[in-house]
Write a structure and sequence with these properties.
70 residues; 0% strand; elongated; mainly alpha
């Protein structure tokens, strides 16, 4: 039996748009990958190349200073 090899697929404009919108909505990389039928690593690499942050833990929180005590 012949061994199957995976072929690399290029990113379509619609996939890039979905990646950007998912990142903006703070969707986890694993969920975006499942939606696009790509690996989580591929999604993270493409996000890095596009300059898009997938770190949803830090992006959703605002930095707050210490409350002043009276």
């Amino acid at each position: 039996m012949a061994k199957r090899t995976k072929k690399r697929r290029g990113w379509l404009a619609a996939e890039v748009k979905a990646l950007r919108s998912g990142a903006k909505q703070l969707v986890r990389a694993k969920k975006i990958a499942k939606l696009l039928k790509r690996t989580e690593g591929a999604v993270r690499q493409k996000a890095l190349a596009l300059g898009v942050s997938l770190n949803s833990q830090r992006r959703g929180k605002k930095k707050t200073g210490a409350a002043k005590k009276k």
